[in-house]
Amino acid sequence: MKILRSSLLILLLGLTQAVISQAIAGEDNIETMAQIMLKLNHYPSDSEKETLRQISLSSTSSKYEKTMANAMINLEHSAKPEDKKKLSAIVKDDSAPEDVRTLAQIIHDVNHKPSAEDKKKLENLK
Q1: From 51, 79, 99, 103, which residue has the greatest number of CB atoms within 10 Å?
Q2: Residue 119 falls inside a structural domain
Q3: Per-residue H/E/C for the chain
């Protein structure tokens, strides 16, 4: 019986740690993408695209983060129409965290670089 309790406790602690790690990784992804958007001038640099590619391929990235990272990789002055549809879906998804919806809207609306108002919002995502 003690072995069963110990095993369950270890399993529970492991699952809790995995959930917390995933949440922390997600926060880092949002901050990283916000930083890239703050510096954006027409499109991300090659090194920024590589960072975004890593986010899009990571098993710890959420579906929202993967969609936004791919949309940012594809940026050329503005988001591509197919990416805008996906970003709009994120913005309208009430189950998505507020910071995710804010970033998705900024990526959707970008025209060469974020507006002054959007830059303030990006600063708050750090």
Answers
A1: 103
A2: yes
A3: CHHHHHHHHHHHHHHHHHHHHHHHHHHHHHHHHHHHHHHCECECCHHHHHHHHHHHHCCCCCHHHHHHHHHHHCCECECCHHHHHHHHHHHHCCCCCHHHHHHHHHHHHCECECCHHHHHHHHHCC
User: What pLDDT, on a 0 to 100 scale, did the predictor assign at position 100?
Assistant: 96
CA distance 45 to 63: 23
Host domain of residue 55:
28-124
Tokens of residue 42, six digits: 């027409």
CA dist 102 → 6, 57, 94, 116, 118 (Å): 43, 22, 12, 14, 9
Q: Which two tokens stand for residue 78?
A: 């503005």
Rounded to two decimals, the pTM is 0.78
The answer as to whether 2 is a domain residue is no
Mean pLDDT per 10-residue run, the chain (126 residues)? 54 44 59 96 94 95 97 96 98 96 97 95 89
Q: Is residue 111 part of a domain?
A: yes
